[in-house]
Amino acid sequence: RRNLEIYSSLSNDQAGGLFAVLDQTLTPMGARLLRNWINQPLINSEKINQRLNTVDFFYQNDSIREALKTELSKIADIERIASRICSFKANPRDVLALKSSLDVIPTLQTILSSSQNDSLKEKISSLDTFDPIRKLISNSIREDASVNVGSGNTIKLGFNQQFDNLLNLSHNGRKLIQKYQEEERKKTNIPSLKISYNNVFGYYIEVTKAHSNKVPNYYERKQTLTNAERYTTPELRELEFKLLNLESEIQALEVELYNQILSEISKYIEQIQTAANIIAELDCLLNFAAIAKRYNYCKPIVTDGFELEIINGRHPVVERNLPIGEKFTPNSTKMDQNSVIHIITGPNMSGKSCYLRQVGLIVLLAQIGSFVPADSAKIGIVDRIFTRVGAQDNIFQGESTFLVEMQESANILNNATRKSLILLDEVGRGTATFDGISIAWAIVEYIHNHIGSKTLFATHYHELNELEKKYENIVNYYIEVLEKDNKVIFTHKLKPGHSDHSFGIYVAEMAGIPNEVTTRAKEILKILESGITSQDEIISVAKPNPKKIKAIGKEIQTRQLAIFDFSDSKLKEKILELDLNNLTPIQALMFLEELQKELKNEN
């Protein structure tokens, strides 16, 4: 998942992952289900095509799609609410959210009543409308209920007679407090006298310091403030006792009634969870249709065959993150029994890694039931997608780039089957050149001879292009790069054949390497490409003398022409015995190394 950049890019940018561009779901359940689908793609063609057909129905019916999106946006996380109800942890607002969400179901059924999609029709018709629950919640829970139960503002009047009576007594009790306040104002001739309540002192009479001389003797001081005094009286204490006992009764009964409501709803939990699953699936499939419509995706043909044909495929993440006005360069892929392994060469920055991920993501999208970013696609189901893209160190565990690379490659070789899709990028670059070429070559041969998986193998080892001559179903491709006015133009276009240049120095120039460095690099490259072999000649490269460079070049050419003009009959015999038709580049290099050793020993 990490190599394919499913949830974030290799730089841990979540916006650069597939999930970020694919998730336009409208419900929390839909987002979670989408994540599960991505983690566990289908391998059953019937189920995949069932999803694709539903997506196609929504794709073709704009009015139905938009109407459903409007309704789905009203639905809360009923899956999580149902879990809280079961454990009696749901608050009144959760219950009200559940009710408003369940109210949407009959509307969904009405919108889809004319659907011609059998699978969709079957699912939506199986949804319970939950009339008893909706009625219970409507009759029992106040619309303005707070989060906390027990304050007397959760249960509706008319739901329970005993609760109604207690609320009426409580309401009258407050009137008694107000009546007593008016009486005390008249008795004391203190118009600003007021009776209040807090959790520490309960009910109290508050009189400002200006009127403290009017306070009667039966007032008992409770608290002194800067500008006021607080008192109580025997009559106020008696009223307080009655009211506080009443509030305790109201709290206890309200909690009891609320738990009874939760218990009654719990009887429907299984049906609620089923409804949540159907709504989540509906949300995901609507999401696929909306994305397909907006970004020009096509419906793939998914089969149980071996073929993989993508016409003008596009990377679903990269194309969405391009600068405004810049268009993504599409590329096609065609793999079948005669074209099983593709060796892809091309310089750095040409887009090899992007292309590999693009193919992997398109196959993944098809197997979760989504349309894909392409003009057309025919995809034979794969059992797994193996990806080894990008260099990573695991320094904290003492693992180098090359070790991690080999561990990932080993996992692929040990677990891939003929039905798998293998994406390998620059295998072998973490070690010495000849070692890297040998390992990469051997891996390709092993996949060809023992696994037979559809494989895209991107490499900068041009020697691997020789495999096309040896095996009929290995095909060479390269990412086109054009040279114009001493500049490199990356077209990002995949073409049959192979690339002969890596354009590394041009990439260095683009990266901002000083001109003096890149100019010198070009001089050294010309010398090295002309075939330097001895240590003295290599040392001479370190001295940038143009005349000497030219002289060395001529000398090397002379020696190269004469290298096969041996008087030694043994060397002649060895060369004549070579089977050039079956000689691999690796074997040729090893043979040259052996010749070199013999010549050095002779000298």
Overall 3D form: elongated
In terms of DSSP E residues, the strand content is 5-15%
The helix tally amounts to 22
Largest sheet: 6 strands, mixed
CATH second-level architecture of the largest domain: Orthogonal Bundle
CATH C-level category of the largest domain? Mainly Alpha
Distance from N terminus to C terminus (CA atoms, Å) equals 56 Å
Question: Which residues form runs of ≥5 with pLDDT under 50?
Answer: 393-399, 548-567
Spatial strand sequence of the major β-sheet: 10-11-12-8-13-14
Q: Estimate nothing, just give the exact number of structural domains.
A: 4
Q: What is the typical, i.e. mean, pLDDT?
A: 85
Q: Using only CA atoms, what is the Rg?
A: 39 Å
Please provide the count of β strands. 14
Q: Given the helix and strand composition, which structural class is it? A: alpha/beta
The amount of helix comes to: 40-55%
Return the CATH topology of the largest domain. Answer: MutS, DNA mismatch repair protein, Chain A, domain 3
Helices and strands, with pairings:
Blueprint: H1 18-22, H2 28-39, H3 45-60, H4 62-72, H5 78-86, H6 92-102, H7 105-111, H8 118-125, H9 131-140, H10 161-188, E1 194-198, E2 202-208, E3 220-224, E4 228-232, H11 234-266, H12 269-295, E5 301-303, E6 308-313, E7 331-335, E8 341-345, H13 352-367, E9 376-380, E10 385-388, H14 401-415, E11 421-425, H15 433-451, E12 454-459, H16 467-470, E13 474-484, E14 487-496, H17 504-511, H18 515-529, H19 535-541, H20 546-562, H21 569-577, H22 585-602
Parallel strand pairs: 5-9, 8-12, 8-13, 10-11, 11-12
Antiparallel strand pairs: 1-2, 2-4, 3-4, 6-7, 6-9, 13-14
Helix pairs in contact: 2-12, 3-12, 4-12, 5-6, 5-12, 6-9, 10-11, 17-18
